[in-house]
Amino acid sequence: MQLKAAGWRTVRIVTDHGWLLMPGGFALVSLPASVTETHWSRAAVLSPGAAAELPWLPWHWDASVRIAVPPGAEAFRAGDVYSHGGLSPQECVTPDITIGGAGETTSAGARIVSVVWRRLRLAVELAGKLEGCSVEVRRVANDGATRLGGPSAIEGTTAKYVMSDEVDEGEPVHVVLLDRHGGVVASSATAVGERA
Description:
- The protein is mainly beta.
- It is 4% helix and 40% strand.
- The protein has two domains: 20-93, no CATH class; 111-191, Immunoglobulins (Immunoglobulin-like), CATH 2.60.40.
- It has two helices and 17 strands.
- Strands 4-5-7-6 form a four-stranded antiparallel β-sheet, with no helix packed on it.
- Strand 14 and strand 15 form a beta hairpin.
- The longest helix is centred in the N-terminal third of the chain and has 4 residues, at 2-5.
């Protein structure tokens, strides 16, 4: 409420991942030391070639490393009541909360009206509340890592975009309208240089 009183129209809260607290302790899951290289309360690195009767996943940075996880709210160590790790929603979901009064969404009603190509030049006509919005061209609409070039600012209700000559005419892409937080408001499938 103090931020609102100071003039902030919208507040965005993004937190780190969470943890589990189990008063009385986690239920113990048996994991023989012979199948692990190391273990913590809610995760264990399996030895190469070891057979484990528990769910496991490849480590993101090295798929040859296998991480075993206890099911549910259980642990590999007895007596623990608080722990990070595992596959609980608390550990895997990063909350992203935007707080603002009704009608304060700056991108309300924002949409893509038309996409017009002139070879590698793109003009995007927009409508709605566009404050803080930008336009990107992506190979996959909901994946910012597939962006082609930088975001384009919007002047009035038009965004202009010049594609790199590294992109071939006819390549399928998505024109994406983003809100001030980088969330996708609207997208339109097209092809580079497509003629109406």
